[in-house]
Write a structure and sequence with these properties.
The protein is an alpha+beta fold. About 40% of the residues lie in helices and about 15% in strands. A hairpin with a 6-residue loop joins strand 5 and strand 6. Helix 8 packs parallel to helix 11. The N and C termini lie far apart (about 80 Å).
């Protein structure tokens, strides 16, 4: 493969744009999925030299820790320095001119104003890893004046491995904190649980509307995960509510994220499933509404709880 320098803004504009945001990280991934049957029949395996194949594999692994994930620098000198043991940069440049050299399959792309290298197979795997998530809303503890709950933490679980977390803040925290102080400790979590469930129901409803199996309740809201779904670490201070697939559609993740090419144990190719997401678009459509309405919903639940307890004289 021969890499050509980009000499003008017009050349840069003609390059494909890398589809994964530069801020996306996959730090929770402890291993690289390897499609060995694809590799065994690949041109690179059959035609590349042992030296080129070892460098190619080294760079493939290094791409998983680069930014954006799945890309490599386009500077050949820098790539030569990244490989261990160190490679002479002139020798590396000569190898890259080979059809099945260390950069076989890698092409130039745009990442904002930077030019980097991407590989279509690696990029496809990164897109699947980024999307393969079950979203749950968790009410987490924070240092408010009453020591109660103050932020919504959205946690994405990728194929059962370590979760990626982000905390979303919203208005009304102090008011909720004061109101929770008026409730007995045993009543606080149920209040938050009911509010989260109400706020997440529109996400499940929208996902069901987008689901290919019309009329099926493929997605729902629950306090518990189904058997086989990734588990969260238990916490005595968190209230967790999930929105995801139900027992009606145990295959929903295959439709949501698609699959790589599939093979029988015999090696026979049996096709692939194109992604047709439902839950992801539904979450994106409603997450802002959830953040803006969660404080009000919890306030309503607190008021209803106090009214019920007052009617019972407690």
């Amino acid at each position: 493969m021969t890499l050509h320098a980009v000499s003008s803004p017009a050349d840069v504009g003609g390059l494909p744009e890398y589809p994964i945001d530069a801020d996306c990280r996959l730090d929770s991934h402890g291993f690289v999925q390897w499609e060995f049957r694809r590799w065994l029949s690949s041109d690179m395996r059959w035609n590349g030299t042992h030296e080129c194949k070892s460098m190619w594999f080294e760079l493939l692994n290094l791409a998983h820790s680069e930014t954006p994930v799945g890309t490599l620098p386009s500077d050949l000198r820098r790539l030569a320095r990244m490989i261990e043991p160190a490679v002479d940069r002139d020798h590396f440049a000569e190898l890259c001119k080979l059809e099945h050299g260390p950069l076989h399959g890698w092409v130039r792309c745009r990442v904002d104003d930077e030019i980097r290298l991407m590989h279509p197979v690696v990029m496809g795997r990164m897109i699947v890893c980024q999307a393969r998530a079950t979203t749950c809303a968790k009410w987490m503890p924070s240092l408010t004046k009453n020591g109660f709950f103050s932020s919504l933490r959205v946690t994405s679980y990728d194929a059962g491995r370590a979760p990626m977390k982000s905390v979303l803040n919203f208005a009304g925290v102090d008011e909720i904190d004061d109101s929770l102080a008026a409730l007995p400790r045993a009543a606080r979590k149920p209040v938050i649980r009911r509010a989260l469930k109400k706020q997440l129901k529109p996400v499940a409803r929208e996902a069901n509307n987008l689901w290919a199996g019309a009329g099926q309740e493929a997605f729902g809201v629950s306090e518990k995960l189904r058997q086989g779904q990734p588990k969260v670490s238990p916490s005595n201070t968190a209230v967790t509510m999930y929105v995801g697939s139900t027992e009606v559609a145990p295959h929903a993740h295959l439709i949501e994220f698609g699959t790589e090419p599939r093979y029988h144990k015999s090696g026979k190719y049996v096709g692939a499933v194109a992604p047709d997401p439902s839950l992801g678009p539904a979450w994106d459509a409603h997450k802002d509404q959830i953040l803006s309405g969660i404080a009000e919903e919890i306030g309503k639940e607190i008021e209803a709880t106090l009214n019920r307890r007052g009617a019972r004289g407690r």
